[in-house]
Design a protein that fits this description.
With about 170 residues, the protein is an alpha+beta fold. It has one domain. It is about 65% helix and about 15% strand. It contains four helices and four strands, in the order αββααββα. The longest helix is centred in the N-terminal third of the chain and has 32 residues.
Length: about 170
């Protein structure tokens, strides 16, 4: 285990908070709709609402109905994330945060696949153009997107820093 205590103190609280927020939000929203006999709640007119959606696939319906394949892919992805976390020696904070967000997002949707008959509970509905809705998503999906964005930004800035250092050494 090459990780410092500081990395663990950053990773595990972010992972735990992200996973708990995802699981709590899914349970709370679905329970609220069930108790109020509704399937849609507008938050910002023509932009943001909550609506119940059960997804048997991955992003945009990829591998729809392939529960065991998606479980296997999730477990493999979680294994990769944890391997990188435990054995990466760079220990950059942004990467630790990214890995924690990835792990939380993976685990949130994996929980649904395992304990909700393979159906991931989605409820956030965004209208990106009049009459056009983005596919419903949840907090776990948001965590995964934020992590990918951080990874992208990190790679851009680390490349620029590397180029700057190389020029300074000449």
């Amino acid at each position: 285990m090459n990780r410092s205590i500081h990395s663990h103190l950053l990773f595990w609280p972010i992972f735990t908070a992200g996973l708990l927020l995802d699981l709590w939000s899914k349970a709370a929203v679905f329970r609220w709709f069930e108790n109020n006999s509704r399937d849609n709640f507008t938050i910002i007119e023509d932009f943001l609402s909550f609506r119940l959606a059960l997804n048997s696939g991955a992003a945009f319906g990829i591998a729809e109905g392939q529960r065991w394949l998606l479980i296997a892919v999730s477990i493999a992805a979680l294994g990769v994330v944890l391997t990188v976390f435990f054995f990466d020696t760079a220990q950059r904070k942004i990467i630790t945060i990214t890995l924690a967000l990835l792990a939380a997002g993976i685990c949130g949707n994996l929980y649904d696949r395992l304990f909700n008959n393979g159906l991931v509970r989605d409820f956030i509905d965004v209208v990106y153009w009049p009459g056009k809705h983005w596919p419903a998503f949840n907090v776990a999906d948001s965590l995964l997107c934020i992590a990918v964005g951080l990874l992208f930004l990190s790679s851009i800035f680390s490349r620029r820093l590397g180029q700057k250092r190389a020029q300074q050494q000449k």
